[in-house]
């Protein structure tokens, strides 16, 4: 079983079933006579290999026995031309990028949505070095390319993240699920088929040209309150290599022929409580996966497109702070509006189309964080509507007024009847908005006039300590109606009587 296998023979029917090699990551436990590999702890150090070399076009079938939800990312799989026996004491934590950055290793991460318990993954390499993959008998297409097939190749699988236990299945028992013979002329056949399929597109082009306004003018928001005014928040100039930005950097569209590398970043770091709203403009259902959301302490201005991997999970290996949620957007459709924010408790919350927010993940809110989106898979085009700050500031902003504050001359004129009214806001019990109205004092006898300049006082403190005319408006907001109650507090300050 350990003999070298010629890469020129595509037949694999006479080969013994694949087993796991005795050389593997520190956290891997192999059982069932070499058929099952299980990661015992942590999320890494799960690199495994096939016990024998594989042939070109030999299907490698892997069943997911155990899947968790404690980590981020799943299986990485591919090939190596290095004999695993020579790696007994030199295996790193990760196949990607620790091994793939070295000669003779090729691997890529599977999307999390395809990693479910009892799912069967298969993959193989062609003589041209293209790696195809599929799930449950359905082939998905080329996964990656560039494998050197001139020598021996071993299967390499990193049991990473939420994929915790896998089993090698006999590929001969899986052949009737999805049968495909790879021959030298297959490349020409696939290209010809693609050219035939392209013939369906030209009839659609005149329709696109006839309605440029519909394409160029994004639809208005449907799920935002009419009175909401967004603060501009264009995307950063740094972006993935397959995404294009509009002139105002508010619309991001991915190349229709690609499914990844659609990274866009916010143009500045986010503030705690700042609510960012994204509108989905276009989707393409032929692709798997959807838009991912993440946050990072890395200034996008320091990045180049070459720094951004096809799989956003690989960003977690960078030295900066990165977190990402691939499934949080839950396959948005055309017109969907996604709002997200970082709370003061470090929760990253997201809501869709005005629904109640859900917590996707937790972050270190003490860091300066930029948000980023990967316009991936079925998500084709998005627009950033902008952002809104919390309805009530944290106290850093001065109270707002509907009239100028009293001048010193007005304060010293006891007989002045036309005095200004000031309005301040604060947060009331239960999260409502309290509107405090400071009314002008009544006419006082001359002996009560103070010639000292008046000093501004905070809204609540002034309302409690200075028994002047005041009124308080308490407003509690809900999703469907506004409940308003008035509390009017009045006191007459005259010779000490109230």
TrEMBL record:
PANTHER family on file: NEURALIZED, PROTEIN NEURALIZED
GO molecular function per UniProt: zinc ion binding
Region of interest (Disordered), residue spans: 388-414
Organism this protein belongs to: Ranatra chinensis
This protein's record includes keyword Hydrolase: no
Domain NHR: 17-171, 232-387
Coiled coil: none
InterPro entries recorded: B30.2/SPRY_sf (IPR043136), Neuralized (IPR037962), NHR_dom (IPR006573)
Name of the molecule in the record: NHR domain-containing protein
Biased composition (Low complexity): 393-411
Keyword Transcription: no
Keyword line: Metal-binding, Repeat, Zinc, Zinc-finger
